[in-house]
Amino acid sequence: MYIRRSHRILIGLAIALAVAAAVVAWRGPTVVNEAQDAASALLKKASNPPPPTAGEQRRSQARRTTDAHGKPSATPVQPRKCIQNGKTIYTDAPCPAGSEEQVVPENLSVVPGSAAR
Predict the structure, then answer these.
(1) What's the confidence (pLDDT) of residue 116?
(2) CA-closest candidate to residue 91, choices 113, 71, 69
(3) pLDDT at 17 > cutoff 90
(4) Is 49 exposed, middle or buried (0-12, 13-18, 19+ CB in 10 A)?
(5) Residue 63 lies in a domain
(6) 116, part of any domain
(7) Could you tell me which of 73, 96, 75 has the C-alpha nearest to residue 84?
(8) Which of 19, 67, 94, 109 is least surrounded, with the fewest CB atoms within 10 Å of its CB?
(9) Whether residue 59 sits in one domain with residue 20
(10) How many domains does the chain contain in total?
């Protein structure tokens, strides 16, 4: 029995369509759930405000070191984050020579301690 070329092509397309439909029926809900999770993660990331710039953080630190009348407070603490030779140093003094000063997060808590050795 001989099947025409056009019929063989149509049968092949029908089989391919049936296989694709079976794969979608089998994996479809999982793919949709993964897409929803990815979309919600992107929405959550997009809705978070961007981190403050270095200038905004400096102004914020300046506000925290002044009292209500604009005078410097008794204990002006301006922590600095210094990176030197791959090591991070937090200090309230200027960064040592040869180190790079980084932006200090606004919510950094400073705990008094002993001097570094």
Answers:
(1) 58
(2) 113
(3) yes
(4) exposed
(5) yes
(6) no
(7) 96
(8) 109
(9) no
(10) 2
CA distance 70 to 102: 26
pLDDT digits (tens, 9 = 90+) for 62-92: 776 665 566 655 555 677 888 888 888 888 7
DSSP 8-state code for residue 52: P
Whole-model pTM: value is 0.31
Asked whether residue 97 is assigned to any structural domain, the reply reads: yes
Tens of pLDDT, residue by residue over 89-117, are: 888 788 888 888 887 776 776 666 666 55
Place of tokens 């049968």: 11
Q: Are residues 68 and 33 in the same domain?
A: no
pLDDT at 81: 85
Domain membership flag for residue 109: no
**Which pLDDT value is given to residue 11?**
95
d(CA 82, CA 80): 6
Same domain, 34 and 73: no
Host domain of residue 6? 1-48
Six token digits for residue 22: 């079976």
Q: Is the same domain home to 32 and 3?
A: yes
